[in-house]
Amino acid sequence: MKLTTLKCPACASILNIDGEKTIFKCEYCQNTINLIKPVSENKIIDGLNEMEQKKYQNYISIMYQSMNAGNYQEAYNYCNKALEVNPHSSSLWENKAICSFWLSSFSNLTDDKALEIITYLNASKQYDENSPTYEQTAKSIAENLFLVTKYKYNKIQKSLLSNGTYAYNIQSLRDAVYCYDMLELCYQIYPDNIYLKKEYEALTKGTFHWIQGQGKNSRNSYQANSIGFNAVSKKDYLLLKLPELNIVPYIPQNQTTNKEKIIISIVIVILILLLLIIGLLSKK
After folding, report:
1. What is the domain extent for residue 24?
2. I need a labelling partner for 1 at 20 to 30 A (CA). Which of 73, 123, 175, 228 fits?
């Protein structure tokens, strides 16, 4: 059995896994992760002399070996060396995106690493619009990021639960918003609407109460304002992207809308007036 050493992107634990598998489960955090295989690259490049060709083939071989062994820093370095020789290779750019993902941590993915991954995938598509491996590579990276985000978000929610109620704090609110950013990054990497739908559900139906009121009366909650998060604007953006989500919200039976409250008040006033009129007539 060929073993691959990897750092779990969710909990950062070092794992030895079966390199022949495509999916593995972290023994520490129980998170499921896709093991993204390196993309094959043509080792023969026209226009290179014999020495240059051997050097290029050596770069490719070391990159493959390093990726299969889970040594993504070395793989990343040799991928760069190979790109210096063949910068128009779509598969090399895909491999660089894969390495960049494994070298990143959850906390820095909205910064430089996120831009790196998207830039490398865009370069791959630019040099080969019909790449047979691009879609699967982008999909695998996005799915991994989604699984990690889901794990982190659930962990945040569990940490808030105290005595059966949720005790919010500034850091947990910021961490939750960070998870929403990660779901949008998933969509940027691989534009599947499921990522935006999950973000909408978490924003409007999750543990955190970001929005008060409904429709035109919607406003940011105290929690949202405390960290400068414009939840209403975010919801409007998601509805613009996914208009099918703009459905009439469910109202629990023990709650009533402002319109219903006004109608009930008017009915009560009318009943009181009728009783007064009846009382006056009966005295006559």
Report:
1. 1-35
2. 73
